[in-house]
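Reopening closed ticket. The problem is back. First fold of the pair:
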Amino acid sequence: MARVPLIELTTGLRPASPYHLGDGITELLPDHLARHDFDDLFLVCGEGIRDLLAEPLARRLSDAHLPVTVLTVPESEGNKSWTRLTELCERLVHAGATKQSIILALGGGMVSNLTGLAAGLLYRGVRYVDIPTTLLSLTDGTLSNKQAINGRGGKNQFGLYHAPLFVWADVAHLRTERPVNHKSGLVEAVKNGLIDDSAWFDRLAAQLTPDLAAVHDDLLGVCRQIVESKLRILATDPSERERAVILEYGHTVGHATEFLCGDLPHGVAVGIGMCLAARVGIRLGITPPEVLEKQEWVLGERLGLPTRIPPNCTPDQILNVIRTDNKRRSSEETHLILLDAIGRVHDSDGTFETPVPESVLKIVLQES
């Protein structure tokens, strides 16, 4: 059988957490797993992809004489919860997982987060492999070693840092994903340009259209560009604790909006949050108006996505969720990533998080 080209990248973590990218590379996964010592494999997947992706992968692993047990979890953001986490941990124990096992997470960000957190907690940490099946997870979520579940009041309130043994990113999986979800993933790519690289932002914007024709014509190439745009930011801060916090641009309001709306895709919510952050920056005299204009043009016209808060999310509701945000530092103000220009984040006294009085944030929310 002809070997499929395999692109090997690194997230900069120590010990290393390699990122393997390609188109049709799933056939190479058994050989790669066989390089590691383990007693059993446990393949965790979303219910919606069990027949389409998980069972064929399980058969491929079994044919290579690698023992594997398939476990499904219900998908949707509402299932990123303590209840589902507890269930998964108990099922892994009952199925025979040990300290020497490897857990495989096959799915989007919700499955990756839930499985990664379970792996981090089980026996104080067992190895897991991330196998993303969505554009958002493949180009963004798997590059962070942050695992979390939601609380009753907000997103990602409970979690830990637990890096995968490696990431196996096969863009062939993305061809079964809905186009609206591809757009959600592309918002995070747009964000990488906005916060770090104006030239990359312009190049990407030129490829984006509502039908995503240029993206689908070169899916592997576009995905590689997006991954590399984030890896440049993570290069010196792979755990996103210092400069790489700029990757949170748009996420504070975006997470609150996503949490409240329930069915709003993550990237779409982040795009709304980015436009809100630009409006805050304009009000504070930090962000030039043309930044907002460019954002709204790319997100609204080039991708056909909303750029304003949905009418069923009130400013008070959003503020209540923000008050329990996992990055919250003060009861009097919210820290936001703001832009000085396309490709340049505002430095507020040595930090990239600018304090914004709640009164200012509420005014901008009301106007949006």
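Second fold of the pair, where the issue appears:
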Amino acid sequence: MFTDQTKKISKSRKSTFRRVIEWLHLWLGLISGIILFVVCLTGAIWVWRHEVWYFTEQYQRVTIQEKPFLAPSVLIAGSGNYLRAKEHGEVILDGITYGRAGRSVMCSYNLSGEKSAAIYLNPYTAEIIKDKRESTAAEIFFIFIRAGHRFFWLPRNIGSPVVGSACIVFLIILLTGLIWWYPKKWNDKTREKSFRIKWGAKWKRLNIDLHNVLGFYSFIFVILLTVTGIVFTFEWFEKGIYRSLTWKEKTTHEKPPLSDTTITKIKYQQPVDLLWSRMNNLYGREKIGNLWISVPGKAKEPYRVSVNFGDGTILYNSRIHYYDGKTLKKLRWKGNKAVDYEQLSVGEKVFRMNFDIHTGQILGLPTKILAFITCLVGASLPVTGVIIWYNRKWGKRKKRD
């Protein structure tokens, strides 16, 4: 049986370093807990955005047919004629997006009065499936979730640094937590407490195990998701990570090239068809998960072609090409993705994977599940930590009363 005097002696035996570590872990956790809970929980939900959109928005899906997709000109003509008959006004094509087999094609248009429309069509038949003018309920929901995850539902200029700072604090909490978790002596008893959750224990003991053991097993993954998230908030942090991985200074920003405005004659009558064929021949239709061709709205603007592979959501190895608006000559440009992924150094490849790592989509479903579980554990740590603190400070006092 431990008396208060025994506890004081035991506490006094702790080194100054240990006391500082425990103090930092406790108070930094209490101060930032609510923000970290929201960021982790919304992150867990955000992981599944593409799946929710796919299953709740039926117009994105079509029955696969044993025949090739129709050319863009056919789909553009069908959607354009439909809109002109409906709007009785100006209709300007903004771009066309092809998905993989079983997905509809989207033609986006700018309408009069700063309005826009997204027309979804069957790529095999040109049948119009959906005339979309407003965000869906699922899209609105995930916009809300992202606002919480990135900005804590505050104005961006306030919320972004608040969330980023809380994530930096989270790194300190995780490191101090690992030091606090590490036993002074390793034996059978400490090993069992450190690595196993005693599911049959009373709820207070179970809560401590959930905090300590889950915190240990998720440590590396939580660190990874936190670091990759801070990259989106602070430019100095982004440049530091880039320099650490590549030994180079990150100075390149996307600078799209311009079309030659001295040329007035259009060389090709069906430019979008030609660009679509080029991409299919270059990469293979079966390998392309998402193909977006942006049509220039001004004489100086080029065609922009973006190609994603796999399921169409992976970004790190995507390709971006620019073509002259009149001649379709490929234009050179400067940007973060101007160099193909295969030509990058190892460090540059890792850095380009940052978004896909952070969202868990880097290797598809397995890493999404891992990111989801990691986020849930991250959200649970502030909760179980506060309960531990409360029980140690007031729980035993109430029991004695």
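Update: turned out to be a display glitch only; the data is intact. The first helix runs from residue 4 to 12. The first strand starts at residue 91 and ends at 99. Please close again.
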